[in-house]
């Protein structure tokens, strides 16, 4: 198959892509299966000579349960299939459209500026993916178990390079990154048809994955704990820990403990940080990796349902474990830039009578920033402070949610079929996001970032009627 796409958007130059794809499959006696795929894909992002990438893949399977020796030895096993796949895929996702070109342009104020410098050597980002699968069925496939073990290694990742300010310009994306990922997915389902027009099913899914950045253009000469290489994707590497009760509890405490700002700018009840670098002061060197990632290592779901005569019912629960979300800005300082929202953490602030609070003493900074948080970089104006404190700016977001519930009744009105041709009619009620169990202080635990606030998770209940003719 050959395809070519040309998409036009307003007065911009048309977007163009093309690909040549081939596939061959082989099946011998429904026991031995083979598939080979090739892809030769072109992208406009790359320079001539580097526009096309070659992405082959292959897979084979063996349906062991179709073998005569297996049928006689294990009559209760209705299916056993072993499979393996290995192949490459590519991505041209980048921050700029044409990586190999650079131009000058005039900004709205009339200044002539230069684009980020071109990268004529940019090429396709590649990922090699492997998968080993086992499919099992018992008792005429009433019980099925599917297990997949996967491994992925991604190279030539297109990343915007870190360029020192002394260079005087920025650069378009370069093939600077590599990352690995592995894990497994387990899917178990039991379904059964009973007498009296009744059937039911229960299905559970469990997934575990671990990802890790192999290489990234981290700052040269930075200590290992301050680099992203070797850390999970989405990890928090600019964390800081609190010591003691977590707060300065007296004036003497302020004068005898390392602090990031002059003592005259501190208040009793402000955060008291760990001197991780052990140099007698709190500085950007005291940021270090803390537990957690924005991507959950464990995901799971549980569903089930039944049918009885004209009734149908099913539900689905889902959740994750080990995921963290970023709280910042308005959650840690009060009323920044005229933002008058109040958050749950601010209702539990430090006072001498509330020493175990979840929030430092109350501040009103107006149009300024909070000095005790600016020390690590960032500000409340531009997406939040860069320093994260576990349990404050960096919160665990494990959850279990009743994602959906459905209940329906199927009518089979013979008189309506004769009168107006209605063959079936179903009335139903369905609920979405009805209940969530989480220790997250507020917001939807499925989100990654709460820096700029959030819109509440919506629960919905719908009543419906479906008619078939």
Give the SSE map.
Layout: E1 2-7, E2 15-28, E3 32-43, E4 52-63, H1 68-73, E5 77-91, E6 104-106, E7 112-114, E8 125-138, E9 143-159, E10 174-194, E11 198-215, E12 235-240, E13 242-247, H2 251-256, E14 271-273, E15 288-293, E16 298-308, E17 311-321, E18 324-326, H3 371-374, E19 378-379, E20 384-385, E21 388-389, E22 394-396, E23 399-411, H4 414-420, E24 424-438, E25 460-468
Parallel strand pairs: 12-21
Antiparallel strand pairs: 1-2, 2-3, 3-4, 4-5, 5-8, 6-7, 8-9, 9-10, 10-11, 11-16, 12-15, 13-14, 16-17, 17-23, 18-22, 19-20, 23-24, 24-25
Explain this structure to me?
The protein has a domain at 234-293 and 328-392. Helix content is 5%, strand content 48%. The chain is built from four helices and 25 strands. A hairpin with a 3-residue loop joins strand 2 (15-28) and strand 3 (32-43). The longest helix has 7 residues, at 414-420.
Concise synopsis of the structure shown:
This protein has helices at residues 68-73, 251-256, 371-374, 414-420; strands spanning 2-7, 15-28, 32-43, 52-63, 77-91, 104-106, 112-114, 125-138, 143-159, 174-194, 198-215, 235-240, 242-247, 271-273, 288-293, 298-308, 311-321, 324-326, 378-379, 384-385, 388-389, 394-396, 399-411, 424-438, 460-468. The protein has 469 residues and is mostly beta strands. It has a domain at 234-293 and 328-392.
